[in-house]
Every structure is written in structure tokens, then in C-alpha cells.
Amino acid sequence: MLSRSLNKVVTSIKSSSIIRMSSATAAATSAPTANAANALKASKAPKKGKLQVSLKTPKGTKDWADSDMVIREAIFSTLSGLFKKHGGVTIDTPVFELREILAGKYGEDSKLIYNLEDQGGELCSLRYDLTVPFARYVAMNNIQSIKRYHIAKVYRRDQPAMTKGRMREFYQCDFDVAGTFESMVPDSECLSILVEGLTSLGIKDFKIKLNHRKILDGIFQIAGVKDEDVRKISSAVDKLDKSPWEAVKKEMTEEKGQSEETADKIGEYVKLNGSLKEIHAVLSADANITSNEKAKQGLDDIATLMKYTEAFDIDSFISFDLSLARGLDYYTGLIYEVVTSASAPPENASELKKKAKSAEDASEFVGVGSIAAGGRYDNLVNMFSEASGKKSTQIPCVGISFGVERIFSLIKQRINSSTTIKPTATQVFVMAFGGGKDWTGYLPERMKVTKQLWDAGIEAEYVYKAKANPRKQFDAAEKAGCHIAVILGKEEYLEGKLRVKRLGQEFADDDGELVSAADIVPIVQEKLSQIHEDGLNEVTRLIKGL
Amino acid sequence: MLSRSLNKVVTSIKSSSIIRMSSATAAATSAPTANAANALKASKAPKKGKLQVSLKTPKGTKDWADSDMVIREAIFSTLSGLFKKHGGVTIDTPVFELREILAGKYGEDSKLIYNLEDQGGELCSLRYDLTVPFARYVAMNNIQSIKRYHIAKVYRRDQPAMTKGRMREFYQCDFDVAGTFESMVPDSECLSILVEGLTSLGIKDFKIKLNHRKILDGIFQIAGVKDEDVRKISSAVDKLDKSPWEAVKKEMTEEKGQSEETADKIGEYVKLNGSLKEIHAVLSADANITSNEKAKQGLDDIATLMKYTEAFDIDSFISFDLSLARGLDYYTGLIYEVVTSASAPPENASELKKKAKSAEDASEFVGVGSIAAGGRYDNLVNMFSEASGKKSTQIPCVGISFGVERIFSLIKQRINSSTTIKPTATQVFVMAFGGGKDWTGYLPERMKVTKQLWDAGIEAEYVYKAKANPRKQFDAAEKAGCHIAVILGKEEYLEGKLRVKRLGQEFADDDGELVSAADIVPIVQEKLSQIHEDGLNEVTRLIKGL
Q1: CA B125 – CA A101 distance, rounded (Å)
Q2: Burial class (CB in 10 A: 0-12, 13-18, 19+), B444
Q3: Which positions bind L-histidine (chains A, B)?
Q4: Hey, is A16 helix, strand or coil?
Q5: Which residues of A touch B361 (CB under 8 A)?
Q6: B296 contact A CB<8A
Q7: Buried b vs exposed e over A17-48: b needs ≥16 C-beta within 10 Å?
């Protein structure tokens, strides 16, 4: 009867499956995610055959497990500790928002938003970042000031480059400060958090590219760009990290209708980069800049910022780079993004792109991109307040976002053959040794002892088998990376005794210590505290780059 | 220029907004989520007026913040610690799956699945639970055995009852064991985890209702239910927690075509409940049961289970209840769910339901429902293996799921006026006191000192203001719940001294201690370790129900 109902379910899986494939295709889809591209193609060319489901995750997404998961959790815990250290509180917003909340915030990237199907009720979309939901939250709850952090997944229907950490579902770790404060103070704290965060993740060779939207806007005015052309010229400038100036200039003049002179004038400025001090000095000596209202405002901000980055001792990480534009609509002041040597695409990227067999994954011909980014957005909260009919109140905001998957891909490169990362937390393995005709295997007895350890907060396991030979139990203990075995000897246990033994190669010849079963918890606790005295574990070493 | 581009964005928000509302309606929508129902209604009756967005989260979802967030994070940390204690590793699967993966797994509840819009590419749906993605993961990676835990959001388009923790987006905290093991061993460990988890969350008055699908199937056979009717009769039995036997009997006979005798026979059995021992004894003495192959298999499992629940000392929490059926298709063995006194709907539920003004939220007339649940599903992994064209291999599974929002709603009830939960982790507030014409406010200096504390891992804040009077700084420190103030006195700081002062009512008259600026880090560390010696903080007390 039961099996009938199961058959029904299996049939229903099969009949509801949208994709028809031949058995040959199915074999291909059972390979790991890397083959997703092939699977997708195959699914679009249905062949005659058995109805089947493809065992894969959707394009641009993946399962996280084993030591990868341990490393990623360690990154989260490092960053959330950092955010808390700076007085951050955390919030959690829904993974989807009303569609209208996301509309008009992301410029050309709006096409990358995932929509939920209209199944009746409200129209919703998956969030594209954590910034817009944060601004919606601040406006909705009339919050005047908050420092909040948020670690959560966001969604973009972009071309994935999985091994470079560019995915369709990925985590952002955001810290934002909302509220009216002394100019550049929360901004410089955000920059300090960038430095502290990356340094504590063992990333040292990074550079914070920084610019100011007002300076950029001033430059465009000076160069003679019309107001209505600013956004499209800004998005041309934004390509300077990937394209040479000549290509960008061509885009400005041939595609975007600017004169040769305008383009050249922009070119003079956007080629500038150096320390805050250097570029500030250059711009301060430029009468065009100092006489342009917007550019002057931006330049004054930079002067203020310099006092604070010096107090935080983070100057050396910052490169004031006038070519940085950033695509998003909502930025109004400082903008910044963090790059490392892995951020840039390979030198022969365009060749590799041509050679790449499939465009489903771009890992072969792209770089990791920026690993963190942020900026000031002073009007976003008020847009929501006004658009919802609330009283207009400006709540200025500034924030940063760490790209965890990209940082993860850098940390992964540090792993060498000697790094062993244990995915379980298990400390103690409870075993039973015995034999003979009347030997039961002490399964309920092992459970009882294990339960005592659990109740004391100690991570403990035992094998799920009535009778297991010592070898199998030691193997299981080793696989779990346990430090200690608690052994129920057939005779010893009857006498109220347990054997406590250190595990590991160097203790192979050590029979351990026979102790009173009544004292097992304090004895194990004492041994564990000795073992853990030596400090850092492998994950911490890896994360910190030690 | 900038403001023009912003105007463009605002216009784009407005023109892209789907919902048109009058200003009056907009005022209503600016109220918190409780008014979501009204807002939705309003949005369905467009009126003439300004284009607007409604500042709300989608129906059945909410933002989490402040002390609620602290409490929920403490629940997660308690449960993940518990899962690790039992040797669990964690995995993370995408929030959406290929639609075909979810098809045919949830019986009548399949209609509650959220679909993603078809924007080209694969058809996907938001996950409905964590169990099906887990089984997909196990099958896809040919995993033979794993203990995994997963704490993540799931999605169901159900009627929400927000204050009872019944939401459309909610967390599940799952622990599952996959692999072929000694009968009932992982099952009893899952039950032990239920007891350990709820107890450590301060929930003591709960009952684990437990049944066995094979016994239930045997009973249906004994009563004369035809094989093809089993699922629908099972789903009638499943309603016994909400409806009286008479109503269920009526459904069986009048709607579902069973004879009076069959229904009465089922009734005899499903009314049985008591301890494992009691009901096991009753069923063992029943020749109908012992001679039915399926029922006998189930009964043997129960006998084995009893040995282990005794070893784990959890018998007293279990009620063997033959009326428990559970709706999901995939269970094959033990099934269980945890209820408390808050689980049941109010006694006058149907009256309240009639009175309730809106059916958008059911909080007024429903109970919290079960707060945790689970069971054995031995065929789900193999369904995926077979349907994907892989070799058929049975990987038996058993698991449990904690309903965090429901547990949260129980813990919230413990909060009384004296409970203060601090949403930030900030320990130290860095202040500057001074005055006079030449007083700068020591902002960069405060930053420098704060940075020293951050670098030593100490949670520290300062006010984001060039000059702030002492009152404002103390207020900010108090708001952040700080224990210590580090004060830069105008003269003292110039002499290389800092003042360290305990905060709080009882230290109001204490001027603190003047120390050398060079020693500030160890001195603050020492003071903090003294302060935290007294142990448990308010959140821990609240979570543990102390």
C-alpha cells in the first residue's frame, strides 16, 4: 500500500517534470554544476525518451558544503564581529520586496532583477542588493539614525563566473550608517571597516579606489557635458577599469555625441590617480575645479576626509582615482571599491573569451572584480518617504558591502595540501570494546554516556551500530577529527570505569587512562581545555592568512 | 546636474510603480505591517491621484530588528551549537530550485509553492522546505551517509498569522541523518535533539506526538480501506488535532466513500494515545495488529525505539498518538511533531474567525501550531536518483525541523518589563570633555583612541560630532548600553592621560580613574573581564527561561 503511494509520487515527479531528456543526456546532467551549461543546452533540445528530472542547482547558484562552508562561516563570523565592534545592530529583511520598491534604483542593471511569478496578490521581486531594502526599512519606520549590518543573499540574473565568485545567488555583508552627522565621519569609519575587515581576512595587497560623485559631476560640467548626458557619460567612464581610454573616448564621441574637446577634457581628469593628498593638491591648484560649485564641495569633503583617514591610519590603502564612477543611480557623494591583483581580467581576456566553448560561465576570461564597495547615498531614504506620501525628510546614508564569494575565492587560493579543515565540531568519540558470545555491543550504554557529554555541552558522537569493531570506531573518530575517545570496555564498564584516550598518530601506543564513570564529564572537560590551549585552529589560521 | 538625475530616478520610481493610491490611502500604508491587509485592499481599488509606492513588506513577511533580532539570533546559535554537538555539518542550498525538483513532494500543499517568473532559462521555484533540497543534494553528490544541519528560510503562500509565528517567509532549523544504520538509532537521536533543543530554549511543557506510518497503514488495511484510498483517509485523520472525531468520521464516510464499519474501526485505533510503553502493550495484545505485516514491522520499530529513548532518558516527553498522520507525501516510518499548550487554537476559534474583520491575517483565531516536527523518509533520495537516470540506491533518511518563528513567539511571551535586551554589542564609549574658545572637540583624537580599542577587538563607539557636550555623550553611551567610558579631558589628554570610568546609575558619583594613554587597551580589557565575570546576560537568561 505504501509502495503504491510512493509509486504515485515518483510518477508525479516524472509527469510534472518540464524537461524531457534521453538517457544519454541524463547521464551528463548528473555531473557536478560545472556541467550545468551542457545540461541546460540539452534541456532546450528535447529528445524522445524517458521523462526525467535533472539533478542540479539552477544556473549561477551552487550548494555549499564541507570545508567550503566552514571557511565561509568563518568569514561571516569575522565580519559580523567586526560590524558589532563598530556598534552595528543587525536587521533581516524579506528575500523578496514589492516590485515597485526596487524599480528605478539600479540603472541599466534593472534588467538583472528576478521577478516572482504573478500567482495572485502582490507583484514581488527578489532583492538585488541589501541597500534598497535598508533604505525602505529606514523610511518605513521613520528611523532618524541607525548603524546596521546585514549579512544575506542577493540575486542577479547576470552571466555567472562561478570559480571567480561571480554568481547569480550570492551573499553581501553590508554595514551602513543612516542619519545626519558631522561631514565625512561615518564615511571614514566605513573606510576603516573596509581596511579592518580585509586585513583580518588575511587580504593585504588591496587598494581602495575612491572618488566623489560631486567632483565627477563638476568635471563633466567643466568639460561641457550637458546635464541630460551626464549619466551616460558617467557609465562610459565607469568602463575605464576594463577598457583603454581610447575605447571609452570613442564611445563618448561616436556613440554618445560628445565633442572631441569635451572627451579630451574629461580624459585629462579621469587619468588622475594617486594618494588623497596628491590628487587633492592637484585639484586644489586647478582653477576650473575650485571655481565649480559642485567640484569644490566634493574637494572640501576630501580635505575633511583626509584628517580622519589619518586618525584611523588608513591613508596608505586609499587611491583617489578620478576614473571611478560606479554604475548605481543612488550614490551622491563618496564612492569607493576595493580591488586586488585578482580583480582584473586575465591579460588575454578577449582571446580567451573567443576560445571559451560556452558563454554560460565566464570564469575563464574574467577577473574576480571588486571584492568590496560602497558609497554615500543621501537621497534614497527620502525618495521612499516622498513616494509613499510621507513627510519629506532627508536621512543621509553611507555604507559598504563585502562580496563574500569573491573574498572566499581569494582565501581558497591559500589552501595548500597541508591545510586540513574539519567540517564537524566533534571532540569526543564514545566507543565500546568487547567480544565473545554474550557481547551486546553496549549501544544503549554508549548512548547514555554520550548523552552525559551532550548535557555538559561537549560535542560527542558514537557509531550508529549495535556491535562495531574497534577499527571501525577509530576510523569514524578519525574521520570526525576527534581529539578524545571515551571507551566502554566490556568488563571495565561493569565495574563503573571508563577509559579516556587521546586520539592521533602520536598517541597510537597510549592506552589511555581508566577513570570512574561518575567523573567522566569533568575529566573530559579538563582534557579538552588542555588540548585547546594551544590556540588557533586551522580555519582561523587560513582566514587570517597566517 | 546631480539633482536632475535624482529627479529622473524619483520619476522613474513613480512611473514604474504598479499601485496607484490617493494620499489618504498612502497615509494608511505608512503604518507598520499590521496594516498590510488594509494597504493591500486599498491597492486593489485604485483611485485617482498621485502615483505612489507602498512602504511595506510583502504579505506574510516582515522585517526583523532590534531585540527581536537579538533573540532570534540567540535561538539560531543555541540550535546550531546543539546540531554541532551531535556531529552535524552544515550545508547551504540555493533559495530556489528547479521547479521539477519540488514537484510531487508536498501533496495538497504544492499549491503553496512560490514560482519565479519565466524570464528565459530554467523554470524555478522558491524552496518549500529544507528536506527536499537536502535529498536532492544527497542524490546529486552520491553521498552515502551524512549528518547535516541547515538553518535557512523557506517559503509558503499560506494564510499568515503573524503574531503566532505563522508566516510566508520563515526559518527552519533542520537536522537530518542520511545513511543506512542500525534501526531506530538515528531516529532516537533526532528525538533526543528535539528534547535537548526545546529544553535549552526554556520550553518545558511540550509533548512529542509520535506515530509510525507503517502502523497507520496497517490500521487502514485492517479497517478495510482500499490501497488507493489510503492517502485521502490519512489526510482526514490528520485533521483530528483540529476537528472532533465525529467531523472526521463524517468526512470519511460521506465525502471519502468509506463504510460506517471501516470508519468506526479506524476510530477505535486513532483514539489511542499514551506512553510508548502503554500503547505498545495495547497494540502487542491486538491480534489484528500483530498479524498485519506492515503494522507488525512498525510495532517492532517501536519496541527497539523504547530501548534507546530510555538510554537518552526522553520517554517522558513522548506521547504515542495513533491520530498523528502528517500531510507530507515523503514520510515512510516514524513521524512526530511537538506541541505545547499554545499550539492549539483558542477554544472559541470559529466564533473569533467569524468576528475577525479581515482574513488577511489569522492570528486572532489560530494557535501557534506545532513548534517542531519530523520523521523518517527512506525513499526520497532514491526517487531523485532514479528520476535523474542514476543507479537506484536507497539512502534512508530521518530528520527534525524546528519552527523558529513559532518558538520565538513563545519566548517573546516571557519578556516582562524588567527585561532589557541590548541590541548592540558596544562595551566602551570614547568621549571628550573640554570647553573654551580653543576647544576643538578632539574628534580625530577620539577616533585614534577608538581605533586602538577596535584593533584590540573591543567594541567601541564615539559620537559622530566635532564637539559634543558631556550630557549628549553620556546619553549616547547609555543608549548603546556601554559599561565603560574612556574620556579624553582637554588638559589630561595633552599630558598623555585618559580617564576610564564605569557607567551606570551606581557609578554616577564616581569620577573614574586617570590612566596613562599608552596602557589604555590592557586597562579596559581588565575592567571588561571583571564586568563580564558575573556571567549570563539578559538574552541568555531569556532564551533559557531563567
Answers
A1: 22
A2: middle
A3: 129-131, 156, 172, 176, 326, 330-331
A4: helix
A5: none
A6: no
A7: bebebbeebbeebbeebeebbbbbebbeeeee
Q: What is the DSSP string of A449-513?
A: HHHHHHHTT--EE--SSSS--HHHHHHHHHHTT-SEEEEEEHHHHHTTEEEEEE-SGGGTT---E
Nearest Cα to Cα of residue A476 among A416, A534, A431, A419:
A431
B388 touches chain A (CB under 8 A): yes
DSSP H helices, A325-418, are 349-355, 380-387, 404-412
Of B53, B311, B451, the CB nearest to A100: B53
CA nearest neighbour of A372 among A329, A410, A407, A325: A407
Query: Looking at domain A60-206+395-413, what is its CATH homologous superfamily?
Result: Bira Bifunctional Protein; Domain 2 (3.30.930.10)
**Higher per-residue pLDDT: A447 or A345:** A447
CA gap A522, A436 in Å, rounded: 32
Res B376 pLDDT > 80: yes
> Is the model's pLDDT at A295 over the cut of 80?
yes
Q: How far apart are CA A508 and CA A470, in angstroms?
A: 13
Q: Residue B411 corresponds to which amino acid?
A: I
Phi and psi torsions of A211, nearest 5°: -150, 180
Q: A508-518: buried (b, 16+ CB within 10 Å) or exposed (e) per residue?
A: eeeebeebebe
Determine, for residues A92 and B54 on separate chains, whether the beta-carbon distance falls below 8 Å.
Answer: no
Class for domain B428-534, per CATH?
alpha beta
B501, β-bridge pairs? B485
Size of interface A-B (CB pairs under 8 A): 394
Q: B5, B8, B330: best mutation site toward chain A, by most A Cβ within 10 Å?
A: B5
**Cβ–Cβ under 8 Å, residues B514 and B499:** yes
Q: Do B117 and A115 touch (CB under 8 A)?
A: yes
H or E element that contains A183:
none
Question: Are the CB atoms for B75 and B543 separated by under 8 Å?
Answer: yes
Tell me how far apart the alpha carbons of residues B231 and A536 are, in angstroms, rounded to a whole number. Answer: 54
CA nearest A453 in B: which residue?
B85
The CATH number, out of the four listed (1.10.3370.10, 3.10.290.10, 3.30.930.10, 3.30.420.40), of the domain defined by the range A207-339: 3.30.930.10
Q: Which tens digits make up the pLDDT trace of A46-82?
A: 344 445 788 999 999 999 999 899 999 999 999 999 9
Average pLDDT along chain A: 87
Question: Domain limits of chain A?
Answer: 2-44, 60-206+395-413, 207-339, 428-534
Q: How far apart are CA B535 and CA B527, in angstroms?
A: 14
Does residue A405 belong to the interface with chain B, where contact is any CB pair within 8 Å? Answer: no
**How many angstroms away from the CA of A341 is the closest CA of chain B?**
26
User: From CA B280, how far away is CA A41, in angstroms rounded?
Assistant: 55
Residue B186, chain A, CB below 8 Å: the answer is yes
Strand partners, A226: none
Q: Please, what is the Cα angle at A495 between A527 and A481, to 5 degrees?
A: 30
DSSP letter at B1 equals -
Smallest CA–CA distance, residue B448 to chain A, in Å, is 5
Query: What does the block give as the cell for A226?
Result: 550637458
Pick out the residues of the known binding site of B for L-histidine: 129-131, 156, 172, 176, 326, 330-331
Grid coordinates representing A392 are 519629506
What CATH architecture is B66-224+261-412?
A: 2-Layer Sandwich (3.30)
Q: What is the pLDDT of residues A215-267, one digit of tens each?
A: 999 999 999 999 999 988 998 998 888 889 999 999 999 999 999 999 999 99
Helices B380-387 + A2-16 axis angle, to 10: 40
**Grid cell in block for residue B287:** 491480534
Are A60-206+395-413 and A207-339 in the same CATH fold? yes
Which cell is A207 given? 587598494
B156 touches chain A (CB under 8 A): no
